[in-house]
User: What shape does this take?
Amino acid sequence: MSAEHMIKQLSVFINNEPGRLAHVAAVLKECNVNIKAFNIAESSGFGVFRAIVDDPGKAFAELSKKGLVVKETDVIAVPMINRPGGLLDVAKAIGDANINIEYGYAYANGDKASFFIRVDDAAAAVSKLKAAGVKVLTESEI
Amino acid sequence: MECMPIDELRDLQYKSLKGLVSNLYGSNAFYRNRMISENVSPDDIRSLSDISKLPFMDKNDLRDNYPTDMFTSPRKDVVRYHVSSGTTGKPTLVGYTRNDIEFWTESLARALTSVGIGDGDVIQVSYGYGLFTGGLGLHYGAEKVGATVLPASTGSTERQLELMIDLDVTSIACTPSYLVHMGDVAKKMGIDLRKDTKLRKAVLGAEPWSDSMRGYIEKELGVQAYDIYGTSEISGPMFTECTEKNGIHVWGDTAIMEIIDPETCESLGPGEEGELVMTVLKKEAMPMIRYRIRDLTTVMDEKCKCGRTSPRIKRITGRSDDMLIIRGINVFPSQVEHTLMQIPELCGQYMIYVDRVGALDYMNVQVEMRPEAFSDKVDDMLKLKKRISSELKKYLNIAVEAELMSPGSLPRFDGKAKRVIDRRVL
Assistant: This one.
């Protein structure tokens, strides 16, 4: 069963104006939602803020209420060891499983790290990784 | 003709007007019905000032009667069409008889003569040739005065500059912004227009410009710059300044000008700024009576220092409607709106920004997208952005930069929406 391995990522569209990211962050603070990891993709004229938070349901509701464009996407999380070569082990395993990464980002904490990966079909990717013996994290493990 | 005493000119205008109105009343259903609904007949025209009794025409008439319902000549007598963009993607068609082409050519020939272009000159016509009236109009006018025409049209600036040098071009007709652009390209190519070319005169128009831009062009490029005026409804580019550079001469035997208050439609006197209304006295396939061009200007009817008595108009200061002229192309905000409405990912809120960078105009459209259209993948968003730009390009014929905005982030308007911000400094 791969549903427990689906990590809810929130993406927020950000206009290309100073102060827009602070506005998003303020909404998350007000509803007491903690950000575990995030990244910002910028393009010509706009940005996309993507985050893994501790309460995606509440964050989604509050951000939407403030008129922000939010989208929930399933991503998967793969554990890494926080040492040289940590990414190589995981990236190789993903490559060997023939999974194409749309985008990804990571955070490290102590000797552990997590790699959040956006793929086309998250459920299929989880199955492939598990079949290859690669550990995939659940929501409670991150 | 151009120096005819003013009283004689007015008498000639009255006779021409009377003849034109009687003729149309008798032969053209569109115009007869229009006059009947305004309760006016040719008998009511007893002096030149009685023109104010006649109904107005405007661009809507051309649009509503698209393509040829307004034509007063049989199709076999129409020798040419030109087309310009309309307000909702529907084009405006104009047609010409052989005489119409001749009247148009004659008007421009007089104009070119008044700026000193004629036999012995080589003129580069760098207006677009094709559906737009600029290229072919200037081409015919310049041939008529005996100049050698280089029909360069628009684009490939380096090549245009090489030809300008090789063929000893003495004058050019193009948009002011294109000439400035040519100057910039010349500089990059190591060409000094003053020393390396024989270019001395430029007839510039088809987009709004200013005396400060004239000053820049004359100082930087070493050419005398003259303003030209016209719209496709009155045939095309028809009138220019003379060498005095103090107003555009509108030949009195060709057209009658009025200035009205755009709100009340009341006539305004000489020296007062308002909306230009033109009656073209020499036009067969598509007569224009009291046509509201919507350009704002002032009429000067005193004799010019050059000796010509034909009344003049001052440089156009703006428009009484919301039409934008971008790189010589007419753009109505309603066209932008119409195009955006066809794109399901958008919610219909938009803002238009127009800027001038260097010599060229740029249009940037901010659009709010629907929440459902948002994707966490930047690639999807870029595809949407690109699709919006290409749809706008398809309908407007100009390159438009689209900027995606989140819903609710653009200004909302209680009263009249102000969705166009024109930041160009002319």
User: Anything to note?
Assistant: Chain B has two domains: 79-320, 329-422. Chain B is about 30% helix and 25% strand. The first strand of chain B starts at residue 78 and ends at 84.
